[in-house]
TrEMBL record:
UniProt membrane topology term: Multi-pass membrane protein
Domain (G-protein coupled receptors family 1 profile) ranges: 41-289
Name of the molecule in the record: Olfactory receptor
Gene Ontology CC annotation, any one: plasma membrane
Record-stated family: Belongs to the G-protein coupled receptor 1 family.
GO molecular function: G protein-coupled receptor activity; olfactory receptor activity
């Protein structure tokens, strides 16, 4: 489609949290605190899993990969957002915006797919325990983790290339980072192809894994209910509780963000949803897996006790 009479934009400016001008320092302090807690929590999770041999299992291998991905995901978004809150940088180049969108989407899709793989791991552990060590051997775990990461960044690359082939007529991004919809809103043309591609990627990255997880947990719960002893049922539920909590929040936020109908009057609501899945959700992973997981708590005590010995 040919476009006439437009000035090509080479740099974007974030609107950020300008609607909350008088509260920006408070927001900076809150987001910085949450960011530090997120980094510390995920680093602690990865370190404990690496150091404590009791956690050298497929379940915790995937958890360490998820924590690493969540850490990188936070690094892509939050430092620039914090800088804009204190007035250090409100603009970003076209290349910088494309790079941010590519890595943001890559890690976001990877996280969704990783949660599905972790659900498969729980399904095998509970529904087929006698063959668990054969099915979920280290070679299979490594291949699954590699495929998930490669798929996430291939889908992200397709989305980023499709978006940044468009001409842009406006430079003000009504958001605090380069997300798909706010960037597409700046295009000089109606991005029909991009909207279709966004829907396809959303179905592949959110709907398909969520459906797989739903079926997996139906089978898991039906298997748990058949366990004769109450103690056995309780232990089986405990192994899934942390993962299921993260899944519900993670896919819930992603579904609201990418399947919600477009509206002209919900910019503040969109920012609130984005804050949830860029700031709150990465913190949820270490909090849930440390507060609700006895094995991680015991491993932390062993590691701390070992370090405190003379």
């Amino acid at each position: 489609m040919k476009i006439a009479n437009y000035t090509e934009v080479r740099e974007f400016v974030f609107q950020g949290f300008s609607n909350f001008q008088e509260h920006q320092l408070i927001l900076f302090a809150i987001f910085l605190t949450l960011y530090i807690l997120t980094l510390a929590g995920n680093v602690i999770i990865v370190t404990i899993i690496r150091v404590d041999h009791h956690l050298h299992t497929p379940m915790y291998f995937f958890l360490s990969v998820l924590s690493t991905s969540e850490t990188c995901y936070s690094l892509v978004i939050i430092p620039r957002m914090l800088a804009s809150l204190v007035g250090l940088s409100q603009s970003i180049s076209l290349v910088g915006c494309g790079t941010q969108l590519f890595f943001f989407l890559g890690f976001a899709i990877t996280n969704c797919l990783l949660l599905a793989v972790m659900g498969f791991d729980r399904y095998v552990a509970i529904c087929n325990p006698l063959r668990y060590s054969v099915i979920m051997n280290w070679r299979v775990c490594t291949i699954l983790a590699s495929l998930v990461c490669a798929s996430g960044f291939l889908l992200s690359l397709a989305q980023a290339v499709a978006i940044f082939r468009l001409p842009f007529c406006k430079s003000l991004i009504e958001h605090f980072f380069c997300d798909v919809r706010p960037v597409l809103d700046l295009a000089c043309v109606t991005p029909i192809i991009n909207d279709i591609l966004t829907l396809i990627i959303s179905l592949l990255a959110i709907t398909a894994p969520a459906t797989f997880l739903f079926v997996s947990y139906v089978l898991i719960i039906s298997t748990i209910l058949k366990i004769a002893s109450a103690e056995g049922r309780k232990k089986a539920f405990a192994t899934c509780a942390s993962h299921l909590t993260v899944v519900i929040v993670h896919y819930g936020c992603a579904s609201i963000a990418y399947f919600k109908p477009k509206s002209e009057n919900t910019k503040d609501q969109d920012q609130l949803i984005s804050v949830t899945y860029t700031v709150i959700t990465p913190l949820l992973n270490p909090v849930v897996y440390s507060l609700r997981n006895k094995e991680v708590q015991d491993a932390l005590r062993r590691v701390v006790g070992r370090k405190s010995l003379p």
